[in-house]
Amino acid sequence: MIVRIMGEGQVEVADSHFPELNKLDDELLAEMEGGDEDGFRRTLGALLDAVRRLGTPLPDDALEPSELILPAADAGLDEVREMLSDDGLIPG
Amino acid sequence: MSGVMKRMGMIFRAKANKALDRAEDPRETLDYSYQKQLELLQKVRRGVADVATSRKRLELQLNQLQGQSAKLEDQGRKALALGREDLAREALSRRASLQQQVSDLEVQHQTLQGEEEKLTLAAQRLQAKVDAFRTKKETIKATYTAAQAQTRIAESFSGISEEMSDVGLAIQRAEDKTAQLQARAGAIDELLASGALDDQSGLGSKDDIQAELDRLSGGTDVELELQRMKAELAGGPAAQQQAIEGGAQGNGQQPQAPHRFDKQ
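Predict the joint structure of the above. Result:
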């Protein structure tokens, strides 16, 4: 499956790795909803590292839609919460 | 439970869908496609009218020739009564050559009549297809409008597009496109099979009789089409229905994709 890390690009991750990534992802969501800023930073870092470690980067000129999208490494908790509410990522 | 990755991906797709939907309203596309089908149907009907005109012209010619033939026969009889056998012979030989023309034209007339019936049948069948498309189109449009309204309600409650509504819109759009393409392909097949498309290109430069002769020499395609239509009739209306409704089934795959990133 193709995962985009915002600001970094796309990586292709084999489906077999998803149980591991999903665990971190669910943790991340729980921390975001619970407002746990420290936990959020830690889990986001771990999740991004795991995606980079398990995935193969796609060439820059590849034109593949991303099936999953991750916030940038320096994204704050509020920022991500903002992206997931309101108007979403593309205005309008 | 859906994680951050999936939700962000969903929002991206939802927004992309919206951008697409703004650019191209499927309902307008459907209406446009329907218009195109009507134009194609018009062309076939014009083809039928052209054949009918040629047939009538042949009938007039036949009448004329038969009148001349009768006149020559009369003249021959009179010449014979006056003891001018040479004149009678001349009249009868002219009549014989006229009779040859008459029988040639009669054969042409018969073939033309058959051709006209086939074209009329093709036009009727196309008409039925266009009617079916119109019904389907109105259904799809109504469904689309309802889906849109649902999305708006969901948006006003939650502030973001509900995932399912947007997936529904994507399916709808794909379904519209498929139905449209299939209908277009069906109509074009129909026209090619009936020979009406060839007619259009031929009529400008050739005279009617030549166009008819061309059409006659292409008669095998029409025969094949007729065979196909007969087989279809024997197979019941199911086969015809499928051409239009294939769109709904063909897109059964579409909703699968989003589920792939569902989590347990």
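The radius of gyration of chain A is 13 Å.
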